[in-house]
Design brief:
9 helices; GIY-YIG endonuclease; 39% helix; 3-stranded antiparallel β-sheet; 9% strand
């Protein structure tokens, strides 16, 4: 088992399913899987917790502290990554059925499997995150302040994320009306006022910019079609209305234009 904890480099090793619990308790609180060593994955978990990652598991990990947490190997998989994912799902189901209060948000495996947070969970997460140090750093306090990601980095992210939350992979796919989590949500007057204030002057993304003649013409035509064409309104002072009338065939004198 030391090989699994330290260096999973022996022949046939694919990955391992592990569980977190307190040293003083036999109840597991989290199940995960890794294709590296358990020790390395554990270090990553504690690093994420120290950075303030917002999940119930990392909140528990911060409170428990590294000295009181025990990480146990549950199953070593030597067949395939798919089997490793299925093994994690099976362990989560087994432990939950056994009464273990797991903090896993999803069912396990290779993805979130369409898990959607409830309103109570979102509210609890917001309360836990309130006042947490090291988070939401803005302005000069942000490590990215004054910096920009390169176009190459943006392109890599775009390629990696392409199709990741589209179609059936989106947890809200096929949800409409009251079934959609955004149903009935509206911005408050205060939020609208705050957003308007942020977009004034230099805060407006178009501040200091002037649209080209081509862009202004496109906007003008679009407004004409919305306010005039679609509503059957004809105004002689509108040059687009005049152009439309000139392009329309004129019926012979005495002929009913409506047929």
């Amino acid at each position: 088992m030391d090989d699994v904890l330290e260096r999973p480099a022996y022949v046939g090793f694919i990955g391992v399913v592990y569980g977190f619990r307190l040293e003083t308790s036999g109840e597991f609180r989290y199940v995960g899987m890794t294709s590296t060593s358990i020790r390395r994955r554990t270090q990553q978990h504690f690093k994420n917790a120290a950075a303030g990652r917002k999940t119930a598991f990392y909140d528990w990990l911060r409170k428990a502290s590294e000295q009181h947490v025990y990480v146990e190997s549950l199953e070593v998989v030597t067949s395939s990554l798919d089997d490793l994912a299925r093994s994690e799902v099976a362990w989560i189901e087994r432990l939950k059925a056994g009464g273990h209060r797991l903090l896993n948000l999803a069912e396990g495996g290779k993805g979130p499997n369409g898990y959607v947070w409830t309103g109570e969970q979102r509210k609890a997460a917001a309360i836990r995150a309130t006042g947490r140090p090291g988070l939401h750093r803005f302005g000069p306090d942000s490590p990215m302040f004054g910096k920009h990601h390169s176009e190459e980095q943006k392109a890599r992210w775009s390629e990696i994320r392409k199709g990741s939350i589209t179609g059936e992979k989106n947890p809200n796919y096929g949800k409409f009306g009251q079934d959609h989590p955004g149903y009935g949500h509206t911005m408050s007057a205060e939020s609208k006022a705050a957003l308007a204030e942020q977009r004034r002057g230099a805060g407006n993304p178009n501040f200091g910019k002037s649209p080209s003649a081509e862009t202004r013409e496109k906007v003008s035509i679009s407004l004409h079609r919305f306010h005039h064409t679609n509503k059957g309104v004809v105004k002689p002072e509108c040059r687009h209305c005049v152009d439309d009338a000139a392009q329309s065939p004129t019926p012979p004198t005495g002929e009913n234009p409506n047929g």
